[in-house]
Design goal:
single chain
């Protein structure tokens, strides 16, 4: 089982990957939105902001998200690490219910290039 530190490291690597993105992916990351990532098996939530093509983690709290972020992700720590490391396909994990992504329709349409 992934640790909180491994999950935080995966989120940092994801932010670095987004910052290096080009084309459609770069356009999708140009959003300015609040984020939450609930690590279900650790019952901890990272919150932050997607802005200027980067994802900044601002806080970590125990339990589910306390406030409703504009983009919400929920998954296990192992799945987060596997996705960021390229070992788990996001679209397949999302389609099978291993990953939950919630956002407004406009944001989902812009984020589809990341999936």
């Amino acid at each position: 089982m992934a640790t909180i530190e491994e999950c935080r490291g995966a989120l940092d690597r994801l932010s670095d990957n987004l910052a290096r993105a080009n084309g459609e992916v770069r356009g999708a990351t140009a959003l300015d939105r609040t984020l939450s990532c609930h690590i279900t098996d650790l019952d901890t939530t990272f919150t932050g902001r997607l802005a200027a093509g980067r994802m900044r983690v601002l806080d970590r709290r125990d339990g589910p998200p306390r406030e409703k972020a504009q983009i919400r992700l929920a998954l296990s720590g192992d799945d987060l690490v596997a996705m960021v490391d390229g070992e788990l396909d996001f679209a397949r994990a999302w389609a099978s219910g291993r990953v939950r992504l919630e956002a407004g329709l406009r944001d989902l349409l812009r984020l589809r290039s990341l999936l």
